[in-house]
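[INFO] parsing input record for Rhamnose mutarotase
[DEBUG] input buffer:
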Amino acid sequence: MSKRVCQIIRLKPSAVEEYKAIHAAAWPAVLATLERAHITDYSNHHYPPLQLLIANFKYTGNDYEGDMKKVAEDPETQRWWKVTDGMQESFVEGAEGSGKEDPGGLFDLEEVFRFEGRK
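[DEBUG] output buffer:
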């Protein structure tokens, strides 16, 4: 069963250009890990007035928690997070960074509406 996930975090104003540059050349090993974890249709959006990063993706697997754990255990993804975590500020009080108990301080948003078109 698939599900959509939407998360937010704040992007540090001093890191905007660096964040965009690293994501313009996302590491193939990190993308492969996401793909193995059944994550598709992943996008990040930036809203400069509030320095929001809004992430959306579709999960198509059967064990979301297990797959997210595998992502967190991947060495190349951990290295990616060491670079990107310092560019962000969490809305989650006490967030410790990616790969810990919370997913890097990303705040999950509740879906209140979806329209996928007529079938």
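[INFO] The longest helix spans residues 64-73.
[INFO] shutting down worker
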